[in-house]
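=== RUN LOG ===
request id: a7f3
mode: sequence -> structure
chains: 1
length: 367
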Amino acid sequence: MAARWRSILLTPNILGKDGVSALSREMARALPEPTLVISLHEAPVAAVRSPVGVEVQGARGSRAAFLINALQAARLGTSDVTIACSHLHLAPIARAAAMAAGHGARPVVVLCGIEAWVPARLLERWGLAGSRVMAISQHTVDRFKAANPGLASLDVTVCHPGLAAAAAAAPRPGPSPVALIVARMSAAERYKGHDALIDVWPQVTAAHPDAVLAIAGDGDDRPRLEARVRELGIESAVSFIGKIGDNALAGLYARSRFFVMPSRDEGFGLVFLEAMRAARPCIGGTGAASEIIQHGVTGFVIDPESRPDLLATMLRLYAEPDTCAQLGKTGRERFLAEFTDRHFQARFLRIIGREPDTPTTSKPVAA
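=== RESULT ===
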């Protein structure tokens, strides 16, 4: 069989809106071509139609099909094939594919946040033992090793994700009354900070009657949060936006005063980068957000369990428009200097010991 693939990416999803899909798209863009993406949960996508510009072999949720596809692809890899994996749960298959490829190939496995903050299963430990391991944040490394003391000596390199450096949408003229949170509302994941924001919002509007909390996103916990808003009598001051497209979301960032997500369990937080790209200051919770937000420079990092800290920080940004604007300006400068897709691709390729054959912007990627 003739060699075909220089790079193979194994991922749960690549076409979705979640963080793992976004990371997988950036990895696909960075990897040397020709690249094959094998997706566990998606259907096959022809290369000419794929929004990532590469062939996608989908397994439609079948782990058996996923494994077979990975092994077959590995046997069609070049002598220097790179096998990468964007989720810990797929690490055993990545190592098996590397063994099938031969040539002493070692896969690259990326730890993507909260999924890696639990004890690894035996097969996952086996997969990691034969891999080069990366993580999207130092916070993820720390949480992973705390949950897996037997892997405390594992070498894990941090590679912060990035976003396309699109031009920021035109900002709303004058200080905006809108505070924005963009996050899934899931009953199983009540850590993003929605409850805290809603609980303190009556105090925010008492000081700033025109203040509006805009909540973008959706999920099965939305009815409970809407009921809490009605209970507090603040329906006119809280807007549930729901799911919106990329262009509408960019406009929402542009119309906001600041971005706030006091999450207590965040693996990284691409939404902070979205806000910084739009020149909006950020309020985040201690943890991974502190690797993105420079406290007092591009925004504020607070104790996510402290409602008084959250309230005081938001009141300050409402009361000090000049401070708000300066933090946002500095945040965009930091984004452009450290967190664009090109910065991520350079970090990623440096870690895996590869260099791009062509400029990394050559592959189209869905936003």
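=== NOTES ===
The CA atoms of residues 141 and 366 lie 28 Å apart.
Residues 321-338 form the longest helix (18 residues).
=== END ===
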